[in-house]
Amino acid sequence: MDIIVLNRRHDRSRSLTLSKLVVFGILCFFLSAFGGVAYLGYHFGTSMHSASSSDLVSSDVIKNWEGKLEDQSRQIDDYKVRSSQHIDALTLRMGELQARLLRLDALGQRLTDVAGLDEGEFDFVSTPALGGPEEVGVEQSYAVPELTAALEMIEQQAESREQQLRLMDELFVNQKFQREQFVAGRPILKGWLSSYYGYRSDPFTGKRAWHAGVDFAGKEGSDIVAVAGGVVTHASERYGYGQLVEINHGGGLVTRYAHCKEILVAVGDVVQKGQALALMGSTGRSTGPHVHFEVRKNGKPMDPAKFIHRASR
Fold first, then answer.
1. For tag attachment on the chain, is the N or C end more exposed, with fewer CB atoms within 10 Å?
2. The CATH classification of domain 192-308, taken from the options 2.30.30.100, 2.60.40.2660, 2.70.70.10, 3.30.565.10
């Protein structure tokens, strides 16, 4: 194969003779170069397409996660609002409890002063003493620490005040019960002592006779009252006593109220100190309106004078 080469001026020329083998080699080189370029172009196009598809998938995933993050953000905001509302409610409740504790403290201190109790035993001023080893491994609350500590302190104070008031209530009940049972005073509101305890001249026979109680004369129909609290064990007529009321005060002490015109209580009634039991009369062995008053200890008569004249508790 002949190839003619011209110079730039085209005034000279050269002739090159190529063999078939060289021509074949040149053709193979160009064909190989073209194929390589075509392959690289195809591979590059495919890579770009894959990259473009990959970009589309990543965008969808990102959008999905962005949506989830927005939902979680809204939930967190909602939790914050509700938590704030709960804390406000707890704070309001804590204020109410503190106000109630102040009233309880004032009441307890007033009762302690009025009753003359030992302040060392019933203290409504100081914070109750607390203590104990720390528990290991106890799960802690997620509540606000300051609020939790305040509520715990109020709860401890409330428990302490309740316990003290409960003990004071029991003490007052016992004191009241003892005062109610304490036999003291006269069985009438108006009247006078007309006959003493012991030997006397019998009003019917004039002979020396034993008088197991005292007599209080007064206006017929006036009240006869209990000198102490107790349980009515007799409320009817008895020989010599006429209409009789008998009260058991416990501890072996019994009081009797005789010659009643009308009885106002019944057997089994629980009566209080000063309660009207009957109306003054002259039933039974009596010369006029009066009440025969007896005090017995374990069945034996005692001089009512020492109970009449002693101060009430």
1. N
2. 2.70.70.10
pLDDT tens sequence across 191-209: 999 999 999 988 888 899 9
d(CA 298, CA 293): 16
- The tokens of 112 are what? 């302690």
Cα–Cα distance measured from residue 264 to residue 240, given in angstroms and rounded to the nearest whole number: 20
How far CA 77 is from CA of 72, 225, 303, in Å, comes to 9, 74, 85
Q: What pairs with residue 17 in β-bridges?
A: 2
How many Å apart are CA 254 and CA 244, to the nearest integer? 13
* Contact present, 257 and 223 (Cβ < 8 Å): no
The pTM is what? 0.49
Checking if the pLDDT of 186 tops 90, the result is yes
d(CA 257, CA 264): 12
Q: Alpha-carbon distance 190 to 65, whole Å? A: 97
